[in-house]
Design a protein that fits this description.
The complex is a heterodimer of chains A (495) and B (95). Helices cover 38% and strands 13% of the residues of chain A. Chain A has 16 helices and 11 strands. In chain B, a hairpin with a 2-residue loop joins strand 1 and strand 2 (87-88). In chain B, 18% of the residues are buried. The chains are: A alpha/beta (495), B mainly alpha (95). Chains A and B meet through helix 10, helix 11, helix 12 and helix 13 of A and helix 1 and helix 2 of B.
Chain lengths: 495, 95
Amino acid sequence: MSDGSLLALSLAEARDGLVGKSFSARELALAYNDAIARAEPLNAYITPTPDRALAMADAADRRLARGEGLPLDGIPIAVKDLYCTKGVLTTAASHILDGFRPPYESTVTEKLWQAGAVMLGKTNLDEFAMGSSNMTSYYGPVENPWRRPGDNRPLVPGGSSGGSAAAVAARAALAATGTDTGGSIRQPASFCGIVGLKPSYGRCSRWGVVAFASSLDHPGPMTRTVRDAAIMLRTMAGHDPKDSTSAPLPVPDFEAALTGDVRGLRVGIPKEYRHDGMRVEIEAAWHDAGQWLREAGAEVVEITLPLTKHALPTYYIIAPAEASSNLARYDGVRFGLRVEADGLEDMYELTRAAGFGAEVRRRVLIGTYVLSAGYYEAYYLKAQRVRALIAREFAEAFKNVDCILTPIAPSAAFGIGEQSDDPVEMYLNDVFTVPASLAGVPAISVPVGLLEGLPIGVQIIGRAFDEETVLRVAGVLESVAQFQCLPSFLAGDRA
Amino acid sequence: MALDKAALAHIAALARIRVSEAELDPLAEELSRILSWVEQLNQVDTAGVKPMASVAATGLPMRGDEVSDGGRRDEILGSAPRTARGFFIVPKAVE
């Protein structure tokens, strides 16, 4: 097979091709290593690992030849550079982690390698996963492989998992890991026209994932199809004694949940997600998705989630508070960057001033403020109380419906440098994704249409630990939408 | 609640981040805008609601008090900017 046709395969197709010996894991890894080199202008990767990919592919080929193939044997995967990978530079896209090569492997990536997956490299992201455009990376912005028709100006891939999303969309990775704290898997998936799944909180271990906001951080898969997300999640999920919030629950065969049958399912449309100034195309895509589910036999009903508008400010208190605590570890002593000074306090302050970018500094300062004496009750505990009410509101809604259908973001991808300098304006990108983050319930972004030639997704939110329904509904939307548009840049196309 | 220059300097000191004199005013203004935006939460009645620290339903899991890992001094020191004879090196902290 040609490189181009190898790169066009979905994960499920590549898996079947490898087992059927239509091509080898080495051929697939070589095609992806080449694709990554061609996709270099996108800046989707911080650290490609082509030699490691070939060594892992050869090991997979030996197992496949013996008929001892593992579930993901030979599948080339990119890893968001927030996951610690043993001996491989791990940056969190921050200057402060300069030169950090972890002496351990994150649980989720370890599970992927144990299942035979091949590591392509580490992908770019917003610094410490704080951002919605991939513009805050110390390693520079990522370009979305999509362009507006007739306009060659580069667009953002969304964030924070922007490198993973751009790589998967441009066929410079077959699939990727992402992390989602307030929308960081779902929003870039929507901006790049791929599938992004934020599982339930506790479904995938956080151990070895650089911490941003511990009660909100969710590792999850980013793929080209819903089936691929189901396959990836099965390997990534599972109880881990090293993460005290990891759920001690069995992992279902998520792929088996893709029955295509949503008859009798109750789907809620929350009226509060209708947003002033929402683009008409986004509202239309949302409406169409509801109509498709109705035609497929689901019962679509309007529901109310009155606290929706309060989710965003709640998130922007809790997430910075947890970040300020988690990022206290970057002190110039044990790893990463150090700015030398005569005194210990000066060394800490100068190291952290030099090591953190503007958005990270902003959030650490806000977090420090809302946790400080005199403000803890008014801001932090207040936000935690509203969070409890938001979680309760979702639990109540799920007594009446099996899943909830909403838009993913108020816009499609915007231009690099086009967005406002006002942080609050930027935070509004997360308005539709943050509620499910606070409630810890699973949510997926699935591409359904275009807005001025750029992809947009819709979101399916499910009950805690019911990723199966979320995937099943997303699978139906995917098969009706037949979203087969491709970005203007594909790494498989030879000039 | 607006954050003034002095309050910001205090927060920056708590966070151990050096902020230059010239940056204090613009940064205080920027953070004040964010804080006044989040203050809309005061519209929500939360009387009697218990703060939620995590959605994880389980209590803290317990395990036996047994050594399960260790003996990795050199691996751990290998990531540090400055070390000597098995120790992290920091600037002098005691007068």
